[in-house]
Design brief:
Length: about 450
Amino acid sequence: MFPTDDTICAIASAAGQAQRGIVRISGPGAAQCLASLLVEPVNLEEITEPTVLTAQIQVEPFPPCSAKLYFWPDHRSYTRQPSVEVHMPGAAPLLQAALNHLCRQGGTGVRVAQPGEFTMRAFLAGRLDLTQAEAVLGVIDAVDQQELSVALSQLAGGLNRQLQALRDQMIGLLAQLEAGLDFVEEDIEFISPEQLRSQVREVHEQLVLILGQLQNRLVQTNHVRIILRGLPNAGKSSLLNALVGRDAAIVSDIAGTTRDYVTCHWRIGGIDCTFIDTAGVELNDALLSEIDRDAQGMTSRQSEISHVELLCIDGSRELDAWEADQLQIAPRGVRVVVCTKSDLPGFRPLAAADVVTSHTDEGVRGLREHLKVVLCQQATEGTVVQQTAARCFDSLETATQSVQRALELCDQQWVEELIAAELRTALNQLGLVVGAVYTDDILDRIFSTFCIGK
């Protein structure tokens, strides 16, 4: 990891010709660096507040030029170190000459900054957390107004506020749990079982929501997994064949024909997709054979790692109780409700359906268009920048699973120590996300993707 007690400088404006350019300086020698640029001396020691100066500067071999000098003499700068920004004519040779001048004349220990070093100093000084640091990169890399808005929202602390509130809630919950464990023989109740269950459930619901936001953001990657899920004989296999235009899955009127899952690759709206046809959901596990139970397990596992769910509901029969329950449950990620078999007699469209379709080419065209719209929206919408979603997903998923286990333990007696252990695991994972817990490798991986001067 880079040292933080020396003075760094870099060109902070974009490469290429421009009317104005920026040279940025941060560190204990910032004032000395600024003084070395000035044509007319200024008593910088008398400046105790952030100040903007207009002055003549000179760097060899160029003649003097006018510049605006933004000077932070104390901890109120971006890096919480004495800092300077020199706004000067944007000619590339002049900016490079200014950088060379600072390294030669600015004093001992002045060097050119490495990629992301200014933002890393801001993180290490507590000015930003890791999610906000990544938002800085999101602002730099934004290609449209939507991506810029997402990055600015995260930089303003949107995600950070949610995660810090969760961490504070979990720390308070752990404190009450562990106090009860310390005084277990005194018969003192610091938190009732009902309160514990309620608070753990609340934390779990918030984690599931944040995890869904990250998963939606990851849909914009070049590969999306789309699972077809529903009761047996709901038309999943016919729908898969119609979507990809070939017989990829076996189709039969006999319920339970699909046991192992079937995958098929297709491209929608420029995004590579893998469609996964799964065994129909069976509700009475006790009556299933070992093969059928394995098929149900594979369906659950595929559902957990998929980005989009096509919930297939047969519109030619009455709505099943399981289907009604599914419609009431908030999906973990993106869900599209498909009312199938619109070509059969007795079909009645489902009010909650996003798409009504059949296995015919005409019937499936609407589903293809709907998926295209959904995937394109997910590629640009979200509350987190792409880099944060990619880095944090595993940690947040582990935290969610730990809190889920804690919630299940709340229904048992004398397991407070196990609940506390699961909450500590989740708390540690949230610490990795915001940077309360980090390693040099994590910082190098994040900040090495920045450009120099940021």
